[in-house]
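note to self — DONT lose this again. spent like an hour looking for the file last time. sequence + predicted structure for the chain T wanted, 519 res
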Amino acid sequence: MGGQPMFILNEDSQRTEGKDAQTSNIAAGKAISEAVRTTLGPRGMDKMLVSDSGDVVITNDGATILNEMEIEHPAAQMIVEVAQTQEDEVGDGTTTASVLAGELLKQAEDLLDDDVHPTTIVEGYHEAAQLAQASIDAETLDADVDEETLLSVAESSMTGKGTGDVNAAGLAETVVEAVQHVDTDAGVVRDNITVRTQTGASSSATELVEGVIVDEEPGHENMPRSVDDAAIAVLDNDIDLKESSIDAEYNITEVDQLDQAIEAEEKELKGYVDKIEDVGAKVVFATGDIADRAKAFLAKRGILAFESVGDDDAKSIASATGGSRAGSVDDLEADDLGEAEAVRVEKFDDDDVAFIEGGAAADAVTVFARGGTEHVTDELERALNDALDVVTAALDEGGVVPGAGAAEIAIAAHIRDEAASIEGRKQLAVEAFADAVDVLPRTLAANTGMDPIDALVDLRSEFDSEGRAGIISEGQTGIIGDPVEYGVLDPAAVKEEAVESATEAATMIVRIDDVIAAE
């Protein structure tokens, strides 16, 4: 029986099925992983990323690299999401997670070539991931997470990253001090730590400020540039003449009428300034505009005022100083005011920066990062944020494990030991997972200047005899040693999240056997 053919898909759609789909997806995932592989470890290299408009980013941060790349392949996007998830959850280990995901895909490709079913690979990977998590728990150090441990965690996180002319150890002290400052009985309040950057000095000038910093300048040149025992008002409005709600025209025929109008306006503006002074405010941050005459009146009263303050900065100032944001001057009450020991304005090159320090503002801290160029400060900011996140994770989420590839050697050994008890082809997938984990110490060895195969053999031998072995960067190469003795430590949460997110992405890609793309 004849008839018209039935089209299920749009005739412009492209469909890739079976082995071709799997090969394409795995190749894309591996390519993304390889893009960040050389950045891993203390001797990892940087990437220069240049946008269409000529903007340049220089970094070895995995999440930043992948976010800046214009990636179109959907499977490759999943690896980008791995890095982003790692960044969001624990703040570091993005390269570790991406490299592990790529190696899991590589191992899965070999299994698929050997006719192991994708479902079997997925089941084996998930079982191996559970074994890996158990191994991480076993490797977590029993000792309390004290200040010395936190310093090691912070330094390990920043070693090999762009920190300008100051070494990671110096910055680690600033990072740990910041985290300890906001450590409460309920845990670390990470949102109370901010990193602010400013060019014009070397990285060694980086300091911790007990309070908040905003890029604002006084509204009038005659306003004071420093105020002690500052009562602070945060206004979500203009300090300006009220606009009429009706469309009206005023016909002025005499000078006296003009003078009266000006006097009325000045009376209104002075009224606002009187109200601000009466409630006791010495410093004003307004998200709206401040009329020029109001600025002059405020300056005469010795009140420091800032206009057009960003919403995020206004929120930070109010929160840090214990104040409330008032909708207008009319709504402002003494109870709305925040407190700080001092508010000062400093000039850096052509930029004014306001420091709100001490008092209630000291509940929040700011790492004021300095650098000679914008590229240096940008990379320093990323390094500091990563370090702050991993120190927070070490305190809040379950301790630390040996770094330098030692945890991965232990994970791979534990998975291989347990693989013998797993029946069927799933055992092949479990063993492949262990082989994939080995890519991390192998990559560390290669980036450190060692032969990766020889280093892996030596690591396994040292682990079998001593129970712990990692790659310690020393001079122009590396040595095999105990990372704990060298103070190379990582938060357990970083390892746990890397295993989980990499496994999820790899298994999701492996299960895809049909790609339908609309044109």
